[in-house]
User: Which sequence fits this backbone?
DNA sequence: GCCAACGTTGGC
DNA sequence: GCCAACGTTGGC
């Protein structure tokens, strides 16, 4: 592929994650995983939220931001993962109900997510709205995921620091199967 | 534009 | 509490 003027095409659309930003077949659904520390916001908190829905704000990593802003589409299915806890695990399923829009917490001086470098006229950070679909029958722990060779390539495993990651459809199906008790 | 220093995330 | 993996920052 010859080098090409970059105008009009953001780098992340051509990088290692290009496929998750690629145009979709009609009606194609894609899959994702988001992390949350349960002491901050747990899956049960989402189930109890008004409309079982929340703004997924506070993400301050540019790769994760790209997934939120440009990757996720309405109707996409999302694993809700508990991090920084024992055991860290996929707890439930939620759904994208609103596509990427500017993260207002970045402009709120009182917010712990305030970022004085984000300009409201050209926002740096984005969020989506997520709605709980259901809790998994049994959580699928990171340990179990790492034990499963079919999941060795999961972004969750490969890039442990990323708080929003793509999930391949076969990985999604594998974890759903594991959550039913094998 | 390079790269070392530093800060953050998150598993263990 | 430690450490690996990254992202960001700042000196040059």
Assistant:
């Amino acid at each position: 592929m010859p080098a090409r003027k970059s105008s009009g095409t953001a780098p992340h659309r051509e990088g290692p994650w290009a496929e998750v930003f690629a145009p979709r077949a009609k009606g194609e659904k894609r899959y994702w995983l988001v992390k949350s520390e349960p002491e901050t916001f747990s899956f049960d908190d989402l189930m109890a939220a008004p409309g079982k829905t929340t703004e997924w704000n506070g993400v301050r990593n540019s790769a994760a931001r790209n997934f939120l802003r440009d990757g996720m589409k309405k109707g996409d299915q999302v694993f809700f993962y508990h991090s920084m806890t024992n055991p860290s695990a996929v707890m439930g399923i939620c759904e994208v109900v609103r596509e990427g829009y500017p993260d207002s917490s970045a402009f709120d001086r009182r917010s712990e997510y305030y970022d004085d470098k984000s300009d409201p006229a050209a926002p740096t950070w984005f969020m989506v709205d997520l709605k709980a679909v259901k809790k998994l029958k049994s959580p699928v722990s990171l340990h179990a995921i790492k034990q499963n060779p079919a999941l060795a390539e999961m972004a969750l495993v490969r890039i442990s620091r990323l708080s929003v990651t793509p999930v391949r459809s076969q990985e999604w199906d594998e974890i759903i199967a594991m959550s039913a008790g094998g």
